[in-house]
Amino acid sequence: MALTLYHDTYAHTGIRETPADLVLLHGWGLHSLVWDAVMPALLEHFQVTVIDLPGFGRSPVPGGDYNLDYLVDHVLAVAPENAIWIGWSLGGMVAMRIAAQFPQRVKALVTVASTPQFVADERWSVALKPDVLQGFRDLLEEDWEGTLIRFLALQCKDSDSMRDDVRALKELVFFHGLPSQKALRSGLEILRDVRLLDAVKKIQCPTLHVFGEKDNLVPVGVSAALQPFQPDARTSIIKGASHVPQVSAPDLLAAACLDFLRESEQL
Fold first, then answer.
1. Which domains does the chain have, with CATH numbers?
2. Is 215 in the active site?
């Protein structure tokens, strides 16, 4: 029997008889509980499916090459047939690829602190320098638990609620046990290697990109840089937040998502 990813669907708590499906995807090093603070607001309007990416949270690591296509294939195998997708960081990259490659599966797309390209090159300058991510990759081999914690701390750096954010992520990260070292290692390789600038040009569904004002991993400048590639997409910037607005400013993030979905007639 093929291994399938952990997923769970939470019932809509509002008054709609047939609520739309919404999928939440987390990022590197964490799992679906990172969305807990925004779940109540989303459940008032949608039936919400959470998915743990392979090797994180409660998900196994099925066989095969652990790359972006691998994530897409396994996520699609357990996701609703047609849904609104919200992806954070690495999860946003997965959602972008799905929206571009499988448009029939995506009614609307929201990315949170995500980018079509995580490292900088001559085509995309608003990103981490390659040696920064490679440094984490090298350290991962020596002390993977310590490197994971340092990476989580970097996600919270400069946020107005930095100490609370770090504490929250540290409580979450090992909640379901240790993440797979293969998932950690291969996940960083995906962040290093994936280039989605041409893919985002193909996205036709309503799209919102949400950024943290003080994000040190996905600079707020990505907002303007994306415009030539996806001119119809909307952007929202969460004041005072860094890379985890769903933790530091869940009410603001939920409001931004719901306003966008209402304006794009998904509510």
1. 7-263 (3.40.50.1820)
2. yes
Closest CA to 113 of 142, 90, 130: 90
Q: Which of 94, 97, 1, 85 is nearest to 35 (CA)?
A: 85
The pLDDT mean for the chain works out to 96
Residue of 32, 59, 89, 236 marked catalytic: 89
d(CA 108, CA 86): 9
Cα 49 to Cα 9, 108, 162, 188, 225, distances in angstroms: 4, 15, 28, 25, 31
> pTM of the entire structure?
0.97
Please tell me which residue in 7, 165, 215, 248 is annotated as part of the active site.
215
Q: Count Cβ atoms within 10 A of the Cβ of residue 224 and give its class: 0-12 exposed, 13-18 middle, 19 or more buried.
A: exposed
**So what's the pLDDT on residue 1?**
53
Q: Which of 45, 165, 243, 248 is catalytic?
A: 243
Note the pLDDT of residue 136: 86
Per-residue pLDDT tens for 95-132? 999 999 999 999 999 999 999 999 999 999 999 999 98
